[in-house]
Known about the structure:
The model has no long low-confidence stretch (mean pLDDT 87). The protein folds into two domains: 8-167; 171-326, no CATH class. It is of the alpha+beta class. α5 packs antiparallel against α11. It has eleven helices and nine strands. Strands 1-2-6-4-3-7 form a six-stranded antiparallel beta barrel, surrounded by four helices. Strands 8-9 form a two-stranded antiparallel ribbon. The protein has helices at residues 40-46, 111-117, 136-144, 158-165, 170-192, 199-205, 208-215, 253-257, 267-290, 301-310, 319-326, and strands at residues 12-26, 29-37, 57-66, 83-91, 95-97, 100-108, 128-134, 233-237, 248-252. The structure holds zinc ion (ZN). Residues 220, 222, 228, 230, 251-252, 254-255 line the site of zinc ion. Zinc ion is lined by residues 220, 222, 228, 230, 251-252, 254-255.
Amino acid sequence: MNTLPSDLSALQIGAFSAYNRRPQPHLSGLVANFYGENGPDSDSITALSLTKFQEIDAYIVVYLIKDSMGRLMKEPQSQQYPKICAFMGKIQRPKPQKDGMLAQFFASNGEDADQVNALGLSKYLDAFIYIEILKPEAYKILTASNPSEPQVELLLNSDDLEQAATHLTAAERKALAKKQKVFQEANKILLMSNFFKQHAVWHSLGEPTAFQDWLKNTPCCYPDEAPCPHHPSLPFDFAPSQTPHYSYIPLCAQHAQNFSFHTIPGGVAFVRLRHQMFIQMWAFETLKKLLNTPSDQEPDPQKIANWALDKKLNHYLPPTYLNKVLSH
Ligand SMILES: [Zn+2]
């Protein structure tokens, strides 16, 4: 009688996510091709180069995570990713490829090659998949209770699969990169304009204390041959009579104590320029956060325009910026 081993992971040889490439026909069967990008996936594939894995039998199960357009394939009812094929195959030595590794599994003509053949359907080509490599006895054990529906899902580390689902497909990355370029060009226009020099814009983004807090993390900006080595710096008020009150630059205690417009190199002009630079950085960063933009991404100009409209600040937006936004 077959029983499930208490440690199911003992049946697993490996698992990784990859892109499904067209299977290659051979005289006596078909070779399944799975491309893993440099990183943990290609590392998992590289491990299959070990001599002990060459030409050994394995039970391969393939799950569909995303189609080639990057659409998530999780089934809404079962909350599972569809299993698209399962076959007995021989592990082949993986091939190094540009920016990754190609895993290859040979399936003999018959039922196994038929399973691999399905991977050549256009709906699965270049799809993002999750591959589980199991010891051959897994097949016997798992089909014992219900031969038509092997319970391989029992073995699956669903956390790994969920993690893989957050991976961007090549098509998604391309679309995002293209958008980022357009966003960056538009936002450059905004940063060159007077938008972030408006008191009304600062007010909509935060109180002066928020700007002061932000300055505490920037180094002392006193100009010298080398950057001032003194830490920490504090928001220094260079125009106490000004309202609304955002007139701060970061200075260390020593430079703040001796501050005078007459002695600081560059004088008033330097201080004003620095202030403009810092408050603009603060305003842009704050706005990015407000619009839930990841720190390494450009904010969406359409969202910025909507925010400005909502705050009745849209008349400060430069017309060239609005044209850019509207043309996309
Ligand atoms: Zn200093």
